[in-house]
Design goal:
Radius of gyration: 34 Å
InterPro entries: DNA_brk_join_enz, Integrase-like_cat_sf
Number of strands: 11
Oligomer: single chain
Keywords: DNA recombination
Protein name: Tyr recombinase domain-containing protein
Organism: Psychrobacter alimentarius
Shape: elongated
CATH architecture of the largest domain: Orthogonal Bundle
Number of domains: 3
Length: 812
């Protein structure tokens, strides 16, 4: 997509985009990329010429000549004879003949032919959109024969069509010209044996019919309103959480550190949490991540280390409160109210409507937007609210002149409108060991289809002023009996319906579809979904709202199938291959020290793969590992000022590997008793002190150090050239594939809402719930064949075994 060109064909000119898509779909006829680009440019230019008030001919001929002078058709295709032309698709044949005019002939009278051939190509594009195959063939074939044939029965049309100085590019003018020529031929008395005149009548008849059908079927498209110059509208990218769409030049952007109201707050009411700006310090929310040599911290990792904001009193605002028993619990009660109503979404939440309330609101908005007279301001207000309700787009954005229909937000594919947003996933770096096929997901684009009638109606209407909008909202409150109805409640409707009422859907899917900003929804970067599944959830939500059946949902049709989500989640088969290679790598150790370090790294990867922990420095302190009860208490945000401990179940395979590794350390200690520092560290591990279990030998091999992610990356780069943070993406995706419930996944992975961690005051999961996830991790271990692997001491590998391993690996 072109970044700075608002008139690029694929965005602004839906006709050329649809035509090129159609041409590409025919696998039997392959168009070179340069040919497709030239056809798109010509179609777009003709489309623009119809809308120009003056200089349309000069504009069209200049652009077409410039395009053809670049020779989009390669010389090897420029054989202009009956046999070679017939092998190519008709649209390309026409382009070849046009390029031949520009390259081989003197431009002059021939420019007239270029203009008419361009109009023929544009007419064919319109007919392709309407699937009129016969008319498409007729218009292209008749103009091709007029240009290619030397017979007067074909070339006569160039003498009859008007010369450029006399010509106007408009549907009415061209239709009149063609009709007049047709009537002239019909009025002549043609003899039975006069084949030339019959051929001429047949030629102009087919051209006239095709042209009229193309423009009769074409519904006039509302002109897009250009946004004010000071408004910079960009494509929706959830990685960017900053506001880019102020309502007007005086509107203030949201400022967390002020208690004053911005002048674009809609329907502000006293004590409304949705519109209050509480003065709090967000410095503690910054993502503090560890850095490693040679590894770049991805956007997903930074988001993973954020904490969601919450309100809490460090000190009570008034000393007198300490003496007031009912107010001593203000911190707890405020938190409970906010957490239960916002995150747990209890039915007592007065800021939500009931399901029947949302349905009544949807029916009313749809009825007003589709049946009120065009002149009614309420029709536009209802349309804007309906569009917000089915997309989650902010109303204040929809009221910006030029926003609705802007190609950076609203796209057209054939006869369908849709909005498209990007999750903003970091692009994968080039890997020496991984290919595209090794990853679960190949896109981060979400498309939401829109009813074309609604968009076209809004493009035709004048935007309402705020007073009209407020009046319509007040009438809605009265007529529906919803005194708490607000713009915010309408904007959040889709998320509520998806997360609470849509079968088999949940808050994670709602976050993806409704474009929840990244810091508030890190989980969306750690999963894998199919495009058709997301559209199915979206359609189910609208079906639920459309309980009367008056809203036509036939516009929601399947898109191309592709997987959406984490850009770093590896496939199960790929991870199994990586494990096999690591096993061979371990068995090829040349000495005791190398075997120690490789064993530690191997178990480190197993630990990450079977827990989903953040692969940071010093993972798995013995003080936090309970091998008897199979529990891990982890705080894998070691550099955060906000503590985030949580529990992770340990599956039997992982418990066995950790016990074997501890025994491996004790055996190494027995063999190297003179290395006192190493012995002291292993004693601390054996006694269960606050010491990381997994260790590496220092450069001097006289000390043990904690494993860092950079160590794991650099030591195994020849096997897996990727940031070891992929292990976390893999686990989250696999848990979802194993149908583990979303709240439980969030608990294990550490993506719970603030202060709802399992060890916190507002826990959403019990320890028993978490323990029940252990069998799922065991299934993953079995799928990766980790249950078949044993941790062996170096001395147990005989020289013969090591030689066999080396030979076996070389043969691979």
């Amino acid at each position: 997509m072109t970044k700075n060109d608002d008139t690029s064909p694929n965005e602004e000119h839906w006709l050329s985009a649809q035509t090129i898509t159609h041409l590409k779909s025919n696998k039997a006829l392959v168009y070179p990329e340069s040919v497709l680009k030239a056809i798109s440019t010509i179609i777009t230019t003709v489309d623009d010429s119809y809308e120009r008030d003056d200089n349309a001919i000069e504009y069209l001929s200049e652009i077409v000549v410039q395009t053809l002078q670049k020779r989009p058709v390669a010389d090897k295709y420029m054989k202009i004879n009956r046999k070679d032309l017939a092998r190519k698709p008709l649209m390309m044949q026409l382009l070849i003949l046009m390029q031949d005019i520009v390259i081989k002939r003197q431009l002059g009278q021939s420019v007239q032919q270029l203009v008419w051939l361009s109009i023929a190509m544009h007419t064919a594009a319109l007919l392709i959109v309407h699937n009129r195959k016969t008319d498409t063939k007729d218009i292209l074939m008749q103009f091709k024969q007029a240009q290619f044939s030397g017979s007067s029965r074909r070339t006569w049309i160039w003498r009859e069509l008007p010369y450029l100085p006399q010509m106007t590019i408009s549907v009415e003018y061209i239709s009149t010209i063609l009709n007049d020529l047709l009537e002239q031929k019909k009025s002549k008395k043609v003899k039975k044996d006069d084949s030339d005149e019959k051929a001429k009548l047949n030629q102009i008849g087919k051209i006239t019919t095709a042209y009229q059908n193309a423009h009769t079927l074409r519904k006039p498209r509302p002109k897009r309103k250009k946004p004010p110059k000071h408004i910079k509208i960009k494509a929706i990218n959830l990685a960017d959480n900053t506001s880019r769409l102020p309502l007007d030049s005086t509107a203030t952007s949201h400022n967390w550190n002020t208690t004053t109201l911005s002048n674009d707050a809609w329907g502000y009411t006293r004590d409304d949490i949705e519109h209050s700006a509480i003065a709090i310090d967000l410095a503690f929310l910054e993502a503090n991540t560890e850095s490693y040599e040679g590894l770049t911290t991805s956007f997903e990792e930074r988001i993973d280390h954020y904490e969601a904001p919450y309100v809490s009193y460090g000190e009570y605002p008034n000393p007198l409160i300490k003496n007031s028993i009912p107010l001593q619990t203000i911190d707890l009660s405020l938190q409970q109210n906010y957490m239960s109503q916002r995150n747990l979404a209890l039915n007592s939440n007065t800021r939500l409507l009931s399901l029947s309330g949302y349905q009544a609101l949807f029916v009313t908005l749809n009825q007003d937007a589709s049946t009120l007279p065009e002149s009614e301001t309420d029709k536009t207000c209802a349309g804007i609210l309906l569009l917000s309700m089915i997309t989650g787009l902010p109303v204040k954005s929809l009221l910006i002149s030029g926003y609705i229909g802007h190609p950076r937000i609203f796209n057209v594919e054939g006869k369908r409108y849709y909005i498209e947003h990007s999750l903003g996933i970091t692009k994968r770096s080039t890997s020496q060991t991984l290919a595209k096929k090794d990853y679960e997901n190949h896109s981060d684009t979400i498309k939401i289809p829109l009813p074309s009638w609604l968009i076209d109606n809004l493009l035709d209407c004048e935007l309402p002023v705020k007073e009209d909008f407020t009046a319509y909202l007040a009438n809605l409150r009265t007529s529906l009996g919803f005194p708490n109805l607000s713009v915010n409640r309408i904007e959040t409707s889709l998320h509520v319906i998806l997360s609470r009422y849509t079968p088999d859907c949940h808050g994670h899917i709602a976050d993806i579809i409704c474009r929840t900003p990244a810091p508030h929804a890190p989980a969306m970067y750690y999963s894998s979904h199919t495009s058709e599944a997301l559209i199915a959830h979206y359609k189910s939500a609208l079906n639920l709202l459309n309980n009367t059946g008056d809203f036509d949902l036939s516009y929601i049709t399947p898109w191309h199938k592709y997987t959406v989500g984490s850009g770093f989640a590896l496939k199960l088969e790929t991870v199994r291959i990586i494990i096999d290679k690591l096993k061979v790598w371990l068995n090829q150790s040349l000495n005791d020290e190398e075997h120690f370090n490789r064993t530690s790294i191997f178990v480190w990867f197993i630990f990450c793969i079977l827990t989903g922990v953040r692969p940071n420095n010093g993972l798995g302190k013995m003080y936090d590992i309970d091998l008897d009860m199979s529990w891990l208490e982890i705080n894998d945000k070691p550099v955060k000022r906000v503590k985030s401990d949580r529990l992770i179940p340990l599956c039997p395979t992982l418990v066995r590997h950790l016990i074997d590794y501890r025994d491996y350390l004790i055996d190494y200690q027995a063999k190297h008793q003179l290395k006192h520092d190493i012995s002291k560290t292993i004693d601390s591990i054996r006694l269960g002190n606050d010491e990381a279990l997994l260790k590496l030998l220092s450069t001097s091999v006289n000390n043990l150090k904690d494993i860092k992610r950079g160590d794991a990356y650099h030591m195994t780069k020849s096997i897996i050239d990727a940031n070891p943070y992929w292990t976390r993406h893999f686990v989250r995706t696999q848990l979802e594939k194993h149908s583990v419930q979303l709240p439980l996944i969030n608990t294990i992975i550490g993506h719970e809402k603030a202060r709802q961690e399992v060890l916190g005051r507002f826990s959403s999961s019990s320890k028993a719930d978490i323990k029940r996830a252990a069998p799922v991790f065991e299934q993953i271990a079995e799928q990766l064949e980790l249950n078949l692997i044993e941790i062996k001491n170096y001395s147990k590998l005989s020289h013969i075994q090591r030689r066999h391993v080396e030979v076996d690996h070389a043969n691979r």
